[in-house]
Design brief:
The protein starts with a strand and ends in a 5-residue tail after the last helix. It is built from three helices and six strands, in the order E-H-E-H-E-E-E-E-H. Strands 1, 2, 3, 4, 5 and 6 form a six-stranded antiparallel beta sheet that branches. It has one domain. The longest helix is centred in the last third of the chain and has 17 residues, at about 90-105. Helices cover about 35% and strands about 25% of the residues. The relative contact order is 0.24.
């Protein structure tokens, strides 16, 4: 699996990120799992026409020592679909900027 990983989180950084995600993203049903909705203008043509699969997300797994962001665009409604695919360059760059912005906002240096 392709991922954007930030490791060696300090306990206080983990707590800040967890609080931020809980307040802004909501829990994903499994402890430490969060779903970041992808901006609609970043969807590929195939993803955009799959309205029954939307919204599309990046899944984030937050552990006490690391933050793992899957670089797979997925839906919460299906396990398999042709719109589920690895992130394009623009989607990947958007996710990295999104996460980096949160870390900056929380004064976390990684």
């Amino acid at each position: 699996m392709k991922q954007y990983v930030i490791d060696e989180l300090r306990t206080e950084d983990y707590e800040k990120i967890k609080r931020y995600f809980n307040d802004n993203l909501g829990a994903g049903g499994i402890d430490g799992i969060y779903w970041i909705p992808i901006e609609p203008d970043l969807l590929t043509q195939k993803q955009a026409v799959h309205t029954q699969c939307q919204p599309l997300y990046f899944m984030v797994d937050l552990k006490p020592d690391r933050l793992c962001c899957e670089l797979l665009v997925r839906t919460q409604y299906r396990v398999r679909c042709s719109c589920i695919d690895y992130a394009t360059d623009s989607q990947r760059n958007w996710l990295i900027r999104y996460i980096d912005c949160i870390l900056n906002k929380l004064n976390i240096t990684a």
